[in-house]
């Protein structure tokens, strides 16, 4: 039976034109007990409701759709609907038990029909194994799901399975093979061969997988394509598009459009507040990071909300504590999360922050250990960004060891790589350290030019903490101490007060051996021979 032609035809037209809110209204108006919608129209209605975040409505319609497919004996279609019910419950509500119930019903239906091997049912199983860290089993399941999708000609199934297989392959440490799978999936997405809900979810999954292994070039390219696709759609909210906003904002931050990135993240946090449990934490974390870089209030609030939604506040919180001078809290937070994470791709996101804390604490031996781990990770994931991170870390360590020439080689390589990626903030950050290397070699003019360039970038971005630090480095007073690390400056101030090495060690919660090394570095860098001379130099040049 068919419903009122006017409503149904209008609903289909709105759905085809991506006017999903209007489509939902018309499908609802055309549906009644006497003239219920066909299962095909129910599927379209459910999709429209799902992509705009009307999750209760989507679940209700998907439930009807599943029952109709099951009654008709269309097992493949029923399992597909069960997958989208699973997705709605897991990714928007965090309702894992209910989601598993729908998968179980579909498996029972499939078994009753003589087979339990349906591609859509393998996707939730693969997610379970990914969550356990068994990426090899997940990859096998997703490979089989892809084959079943090819046999059915189901483009959505092929794309979902291939995208997730690409992520599992990356987790197994195979960069080339993993990216090839993601590329294959993205070809289908970019040519608009996939349904809207598959398009939105898999765009974000592929981009997120790239960021996990620092494949920023691909992530940026696909983020541009995502932005173009979103530009063809009406202004939308909900969990699916809220997740898209996060990755669009990450690209904006990378490319230097921080004001728009902030707007996108704030909107994403609103969109994901109710039906977006598993991704809301990511939005709050990225907003906290942006606020930290801008020196805006609300950093701790954002990180606390990220934590409440199940997303780690690290490494952003540690870097925030480091900026407040609380090195001990920064170190403790990073040590704890490093102990929890054993996967190389998960640890690599933390290592740059660990490096900063080690250098600020004067723990050179530990910094060297971090470099060794970074280098190992870079061999597994030899992306441009990973090499930039490694080069920058090596340069920063060389500066701390008073090897400015070696430092500049690494820092300039890092700068070139960040420029290649269009990462304006990271380029400016490295530029400040290049200036320190130039100054240590006596090239004050080169240092001033690097600092002016970095300051211009920080001011344009609104990176207030970095801008303030850079202005300080450009002042005549601080020029005398620019060769010293922040920790060495702390030690020098305590030397001025007359504190002994043992007293300084106790105050800074460091070993006497570490303090002795700091004092030795200070004397060498300032060109003096004794603690007394260092104190006199500091007082003469206005250190307070």
UniProtKB/TrEMBL annotation:
Keywords noted in UniProt: DNA-binding, Transcription, Transcription regulation
CDD domains per record: LuxR_C_like
Organism: Nocardioides islandensis
Domain HTH luxR-type stretches: 477-542
Database matches in PROSITE patterns: HTH_LUXR_1, HTH_LUXR_2
GO biological process: regulation of DNA-templated transcription
PANTHER family the record matches: DNA-BINDING TRANSCRIPTIONAL ACTIVATOR DEVR_DOSR (PTHR44688:SF16)
GO molecular function, one term: DNA binding
Name this polypeptide is given: Response regulator transcription factor
Keyword DNA-binding: yes
SMART domains on file: HTH_LUXR (SM00421)
């Amino acid at each position: 039976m068919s419903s009122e032609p006017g409503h149904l035809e209008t609903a289909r037209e709105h759905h085809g034109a991506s006017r999903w809110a209007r489509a939902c209204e018309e499908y609802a108006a055309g549906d009644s007990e006497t003239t219920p919608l066909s299962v095909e129209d129910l599927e379209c209605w459910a999709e429209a409701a799902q992509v705009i975040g009307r999750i209760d409505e989507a679940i209700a319609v998907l439930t009807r759709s599943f029952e109709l497919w099951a009654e008709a004996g269309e097992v493949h279609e029923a399992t597909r609907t069960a997958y989208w019910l699973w997705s709605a419950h897991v990714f928007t509500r965090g309702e894992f038990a209910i989601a598993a119930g729908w998968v179980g019903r579909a498996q029972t239906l499939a078994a009753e029909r003589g087979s339990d091997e349906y591609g859509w049912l393998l996707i939730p199983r693969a997610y379970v194994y990914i969550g356990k860290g068994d990426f090899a089993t997940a990859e096998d399941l997703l490979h089989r799901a892809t084959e079943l999708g090819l046999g059915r000609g189901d483009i959505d199934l092929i794309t979902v399975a291939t995208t997730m297989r690409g992520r599992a392959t990356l987790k197994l440490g195979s960069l080339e093979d993993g990216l090839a799978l993601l590329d294959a999936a993205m070809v289908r997405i970019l040519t608009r061969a996939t349904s809207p809900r598959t398009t939105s979810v898999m765009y974000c999954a592929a981009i997120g997988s790239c960021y996990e292994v620092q494949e920023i070039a691909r992530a940026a390219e696909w983020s541009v394509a995502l932005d173009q696709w979103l530009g063809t759609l009406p202004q939308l909210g909900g969990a699916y598009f809220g997740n898209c906003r996060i990755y669009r904002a990450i690209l904006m931050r990378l490319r230097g459009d921080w004001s728009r990135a902030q707007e996108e993240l704030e909107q994403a946090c609103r969109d994901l507040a109710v039906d977006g449990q598993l991704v809301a934490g990511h939005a709050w974390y990225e907003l906290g990071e942006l606020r930290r870089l801008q020196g805006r209030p609300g950093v701790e609030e954002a990180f606390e909300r990220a934590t409440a939604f199940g997303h780690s506040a690290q490494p952003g919180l540690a870097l925030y504590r480091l900026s407040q001078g609380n090195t001990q809290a920064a170190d403790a937070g990073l040590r704890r999360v490093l102990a929890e994470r054993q996967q190389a791709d998960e640890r690599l996101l933390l290592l740059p922050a660990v490096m900063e804390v080690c250098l600020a604490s004067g723990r050179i031996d530990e910094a060297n250990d971090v470099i060794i781990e970074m280098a190992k990770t870079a061999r597994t994931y030899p992306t441009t960004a990973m090499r930039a991170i490694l080069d920058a870390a090596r340069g920063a360590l060389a500066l701390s060891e008073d090897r400015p020439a070696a430092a500049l080689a690494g820092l300039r390589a890092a700068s070139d790589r960040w420029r290649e990626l269009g990462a304006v903030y990271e380029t400016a950050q490295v530029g400040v350290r290049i200036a320190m290397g130039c100054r240590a070699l006596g090239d004050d003019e080169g240092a001033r030019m690097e600092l002016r360039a970095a300051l211009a970038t920080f001011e344009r971005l609104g990176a207030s903490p970095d801008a303030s630090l850079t202005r300080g480095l450009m002042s005549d007073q601080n020029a005398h101490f620019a060769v010293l690390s922040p920790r060495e400056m702390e030690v020098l101030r305590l030397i001025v007060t007359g504190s002994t090495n043992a007293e300084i060690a106790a105050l800074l919660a460091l070993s006497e051996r570490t303090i002795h090394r700091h004092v030795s570095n200070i004397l060498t860098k300032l060109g003096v021979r004794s603690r007394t001379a260092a104190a006199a130099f500091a007082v003469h040049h206005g250190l307070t």
